[in-house]
Design a protein that fits this description.
Blueprint lengths: L10 H16 L10 E3 L8 E3 L2 H8 L9 H10 L7 E7 L3 E6 L1 H14 L12 E5 L11 H19 L3 E6 L7 H12 L14 H14 L1 H15 L3 H25 L4 E2 L2 H4 L3 H10 L3 E4 L2 E4 L8 E4 L7 H14 L5 E7 L3 H13 L12 E7 L2 E2 L16 H18 L2 H4 L2 H21 L7 E2 L2 H4 L7 H18 L3 H7 L7 H11 L1 H10 L4 H20 L8 H21 L9
Parallel strand pairs: 5-6, 5-11, 6-7, 11-12, 13-14
Antiparallel strand pairs: 1-2, 2-4, 3-4, 8-9, 9-10
Helix pairs in contact: 1-3, 2-3, 4-20, 4-23, 6-7, 6-8, 6-9, 7-8, 8-9, 11-12, 12-13, 14-16, 18-23, 20-22, 20-23, 21-22, 22-23
Function: Forms part of a macromolecular complex that catalyzes the attachment of specific amino acids to cognate tRNAs during protein synthesis.
EC number: 6.1.1.19
Family: Belongs to the class-I aminoacyl-tRNA synthetase family.
Amino acid sequence: METDKESIGSLKQQLAKLFEESLRAAFPDISDVQPLVAICNDPKNGDYQCNNAMSLWNKIKGKGTQFKGPQPVGKSIVENLPASDMIENCSIAGPGFINIVLARQWIAKSVQKMLIDGIETWAPKLPVKRTVVDFSSPNIAKEMHVGHLRSTIIGDTLARMLEFSNVEVLRRNHVGDWGTQFGMLIEFLFEKFPNWEAGSTPAIGDLEAFYKASKQRFDSDPDFKERAQKAVVSLQGGDEKYRKAWAQICEISRKEFQKVYERLGVHLEEKGESFYNPYIPKALELLNEKGLIEESEGARVIFIEGKKIPLIVVKRDGGFNYASTDLTALWYRLNEEKADWMIYVTDVGQREHFEMFFSAAKHAGWLPSNENDYPKASHVGFGLVLGEDGKRFRTRSTEVVKLVDLLDEAKSRCKLALEERGKAKEWTAEELDQTAEAVGYGAVKYADLKNNRLTNYTFNFDQMLSDKGNTAVYLLYAHARICSIIRKSGRDIEELKKSGAMDLAHQDERMLGLHLLQFPEIVEEACTNLLPNLLCEYLYKLSEDFTKFYTNCQVVGSDEETSRLLLCEATALVMRKCFHLLGITPVYKI
């Protein structure tokens, strides 16, 4: 039975398979022709089109072919299509474009099959088995601020989409837990809490304030500065007392980060900079054997073609830096973790750093020189979060906005809005709290994810918490409305899935059914291009298509009630999967 439930690939992949057979039959002498299938830009022409005719014609013209132009080529492709209940008809337009209209019954049957077998059967098929998604990655002893929000949310969604596509994902938190700042933090700890070893974690309290105070001391007191610099050497040399102090500071920080991750529903596995430290000499030795490392002004560097400044891998004082750690982590992920795709989610400001160390890895033969071959490394850059004034988002006292405060405010604003609508009387306190949290946190995530990640976006509570337009609030309410239609019908939807049949006779029903079927290829495209906003666009369009259907097609009490309730259920199911991939908790009543 299980084989029936296997992923069938996206609608686009299924069409491509048919056209691949037809291309092989019509043009047996031409090898390696990939079917070019795409959604029609204008639905008036058809649902999909196949665009191979023109390029095929360019390959065969003047070589004694019987064809007289791209149109007959297109005609031959259509004539050689294997029999399938998928396609209703094909027509040829312009220079051989093949417009495809899908069979209504096939759309209905496919949607209904998903209702029975589960949406997992719609998982796209990707050419990778194991990926590393390196995201969030805050610095120890500093608060997580709004800049970390984007990396955490975008990284989590990419990981969720890949996991849905049956890829094994190693979610890596590459925290900044190693480096010169630990010297001053440790010395300050010894000074402020002389009995820090006496048992429980020292009551440092606000780690951010502790960091600032130690930095001030470092900048103003030469003796302290010298002690701090020596402390770095002791820590990196493995001195037990210093290692223990370092571990305590990291642990306090980790607990703070965890609070944020729990609120956001984000799961990460920490492998910080310190983890890769023991492997650095080996990685640099491998690069050196390839003749890539040179001496320059007392440092050891790798020169990168087309870049003015070389990549420094060992500093003048013999210390390691970001580049040494990042190259080593890449080596580890390729060789120890056997990943075939490494995805790094950081702000666009770091793009050059990634270009340089990816380039070094290609020269070393660790990565293939062709961008499209695996294993590959990708930098997922994102823009800044701006305030209303168009500048970096900060608090009134010009501090960076703390993530915890931001999430608290989103939740409390939602709670207030629900209370104003009289929900405190209708719901239990727990329902009110859970809904406010789902909608508030969901709104913050969606406002970020719906933009193309490369652009800066303006953080605006009023806009993100509006129930109109392309917002999480609007979409969550749309989902709750669908659930309420099904509830009010009084029918048993599980029973209907087994006994009822779906028929998409009305054009708005057919349009909604087709849009549902396109879900897998949108997820595939969002994964391949590392663009979560494609999924947001799909979800918003889905809710618009549903509204159109619901406006023009009576559901409860109509002759088509069973079929239309199944269509409602399929829409709710796909919306829920979209929410899940975006890390948003759905709400079932409003």
